[in-house]
Specification:
Blueprint: H1 11-18, H2 22-34, E1 38-41, E2 50-53
Antiparallel strand pairs: 1-2
Helix pairs in contact: 1-2
Length: 60
């Protein structure tokens, strides 16, 4: 995998790697999105969603 190549990590594989259920992972993604820490972008049917990590702005 090159540095510019996107990381592909199916939800089921992520759940196994973390030792949690897929439902727990889905809930965690929803919480991260609600808190403005990630952005999930849906692509066409059958294609994986893209998940972008958002960096909060530094408070002055």
């Amino acid at each position: 995998m090159t540095k510019t190549e996107p990381h592909r990590f199916p939800l089921a594989e992520l759940a196994v790697a973390l030792g949690h259920s897929t439902q727990t992972c889905k809930r965690s993604f929803r919480e991260l999105e609600d808190d403005g820490l990630i952005l999930r972008v849906r692509w066409e049917i059958g294609a994986p969603n893209r998940i972008y990590v958002l960096v909060p702005k530094k408070r002055d």
